[in-house]
Amino acid sequence: MRSRLLGIAVLFSVAFAAGHATAADQALIDAAKKEGQVVWYTTLIVNQIIRPLKDAFEKKYPGVTLQYSRADDLVTSAKLIAEGQAGRVQADIFDGLANMAPLEEAGLLTKFTVPNADAYPAQLRSKDGYWITMNMYVFTPGINTSLLPKDQAPKTFQDLLDPKLKGKMAWNGSSMAGAYGFVANILTTMGDDKGMAYLRALAKQELVPLPIAIRAVLDRVIAGEYAIGLEMNNTHAAISAAQGAPVKWVPLNPVSETVQVAGLVKGAPHPNAAKLFLDFMISRPGQEIFRDNDYLPMHPDVQAKIPELKPEQGGYKAVLYTPDTLETEVPRWRKIGEELFR
């Protein structure tokens, strides 16, 4: 599995000729306008990306409005399940990562195709047609440069075992964007024996688990409460650094990389408008909106605003996790994380 995951970055070289986005079918546009709206359950940040996407979509397709409800993926999943069981489906589309496989198994998703999906490598689309990637996240240590000068920043995973860092590192202790993702990365790249030995040594460093979003963990690092935040979103660190905060992201080879994926809800009230919006988000213009608002785009023709934030431009390796790779492994990673770092 390791070689498959580590090699997946090569697939990002597959691309259409620049500027050749696929237009939505007029019949789909007409059907979407008859429906009049699309309802999106999302985990994305409202001011940063949802509103820019809404404004651009509604301008491009007048007569189709975007309604949204923002919550974390566990809350979104529970809401979708409750509505599905009650026979009162409200959402048309939703996004997430770890929630995709359970909702598919519960029979709450439906297959779909959209024109711009052809621009994406097969590994970035569900083989069964249930999801497609929207954007990506790269997780690295985020360091407080006032507490830990650049020349003392960790350069390898082994450097995190330095005794001077004991009790000075924090993370989200119960998330793939945190402890579980870190465990996954170590075991995938080092193998079970060496990986478990490393994780047991790291556990002696008394990492601080914080039951808050990783953006909030990074804020605590920036405030000087901790020297390092592990499994931080590198775009968050880059944004804060550009605003003058004493923070820097450091890629330890390899980094963890996950994708945000979107799916179509079974029994969606507005299925055509949903497909139109999905297609818009993954099109080149839609992906440029992600880029311009400090998200990492997935379209092969669209680079990040800061190119080195993406592993293939930054010259470092990544282990990529998709819903397919998470489906069977997450329970094991969670168990190990809880046993070692509780």
Protein described:
By secondary structure, this protein is an alpha/beta fold. The chain folds into 2 domains: 11-136 and 259-311, Periplasmic binding protein-like II (D-Maltodextrin-Binding Protein, domain 2), CATH 3.40.190.10; 139-256 and 327-341, 3-Layer(aba) Sandwich (D-Maltodextrin-Binding Protein, domain 2). Helices cover 39% and strands 18% of the residues. It has helices at 2-6, 26-35, 46-60, 73-85, 100-105, 179-190, 192-203, 214-222, 234-242, 271-282, 284-292, 311-314, 323-341, and strands at 37-42, 65-70, 93-96, 109-110, 132-144, 169-171, 208-209, 228-233, 247-249, 255-265, 296-297, 318-321. Helix 3 (46-60) links the parallel strand 1 (37-42) and strand 2. The longest helix has 19 residues, at 323-341. The two termini are 28 Å apart.
SSE diagram, text form:
Elements: H1 2-6, H2 26-35, E1 37-42, H3 46-60, E2 65-70, H4 73-85, E3 93-96, H5 100-105, E4 109-110, E5 132-144, E6 169-171, H6 179-190, H7 192-203, E7 208-209, H8 214-222, E8 228-233, H9 234-242, E9 247-249, E10 255-265, H10 271-282, H11 284-292, E11 296-297, H12 311-314, E12 318-321, H13 323-341
Parallel strand pairs: 1-2, 1-3, 6-7, 6-8, 10-12
Antiparallel strand pairs: 3-10, 4-10, 5-8, 5-9, 5-10, 5-11
Helix pairs in contact: 2-10, 6-7, 6-13
